Amino acid sequence: MQAPLVEDKPFAELLQFNGAFRLSKYSTNPSTFSTWKAEGIWSPVRDITFRGSINRAQRAPTVIESYQASNTSYGRIDPTYNDFCAPTIIRYDTGPNGQRIPVYGDPKASQAVCAATGLAPEKYGSSDLLCDTDVGCTYRSGGFTVDPETAYTKTFGVVVSPRFIPGLTVSVDRFLIDLDQSIGYNNYQYFSDGCLSTGSDFFCKMFVRNANGQLFSDPGSNPTSGYIRQGTTNYYKAKSHGWDFQAQYALRMGKAGRLDFDFAGSLTTLAGAQDSPILAERNCVGYYGGAGCGQFISKWSHTLRTTYTTSDDFFSASLNWRYLGPLTRVSNSGDPTLGWSEGDDRTTFYRIEGYNYFDLALSFRVNKAFSLRVAANNILDKGPPVFPNSRDVTGLFRNNTIAPRYDSLGRQIAIGTTVNF
């Protein structure tokens, strides 16, 4: 819906309300869900426009995410793992026949934490909870429903098109994106470590104990309890806040042609996640690496494209400047919420300086039926940053850089033509 409420009045060149609503239903989820938008636009004079909007967006799981969430499988937990509510082995004594006899101590977890996993008080510290050395404890992947993740996006901005500078448009927008129930994947160790250290229901509810309090299940006879959950599920929150800047300017030079300038910049002030209600919020802006900062978002990035076109549109040349701000490895962040700890600071391969790329494109419109284009991206053939262990940074094998962010192939040249018949 677009509803212009006032037009061409004093202090209200335009006052408009926009709205939208959608109701969705996916076969992979038992419930319907809705998205909506509300936006207000006010132009007190023709030169300036104020705008603000709030949006509720939802994303249902992808086909892969739905499959991972619903496809049930069981597996044995790492043999070195032990239920933290079971007694710990503090040493081994030698028996009369030379056999090793374990001597047990207190469990790693408190009774309150174990109660949060569903363990009865009388079972706390029982040797029955020990993961059997032959069978072990069990994890279960899949067999669950993943709900859509929900984002609330608020934007506030202004657009200026001054009449005394024809061809110029400048806009500034503040964006606040807050994502709830974000969809992601983690294994049993993530939930086990989180429950042990926090006692939060967010982590501890992933423990499903059998009637004996054990973390063991047999898919054939006892498939509904006795495991730690892992796989694709809903997490807590993710956020992205910042400012967007845009400017366009068309300079007409008569018979000499025209120049077009197009600028787009983004200042990111917050980009990160909060894994549970009691864990600290991470802000990964300007950092990379570690378990939680794989987004590679610098504080500032921009593009500036300058295009010259002849008056007859026969020839145009476009130079684009791409800038990616610097990034620092989380090991040198000094921030414990990003995984830093005392003594972790690295002396090499811990910082990527700002990167500048330049792209050039030429276009020839020979006639109405034929045009030719030549483009060269990264014309200075700037190489990407190199890492000694790229899997630690990107989670990917067989590369030694951040391929999604930097031009790993160097200079790239493309030639194209359009023929109209």
TrEMBL record:
InterPro entries: Beta-barrel_TonB (IPR000531), Beta-barrel_TonB_sf (IPR036942). It is found in: Cell outer membrane. Pfam families: TonB_dep_Rec_b-barrel (PF00593). Its main location: membrane. GO terms for cellular component: cell outer membrane. Keywords: Cell outer membrane, Membrane. Residues 13-379 form the TonB-dependent receptor-like beta-barrel domain. This is TonB-dependent receptor-like beta-barrel domain-containing protein. It comes from Stakelama pacifica.
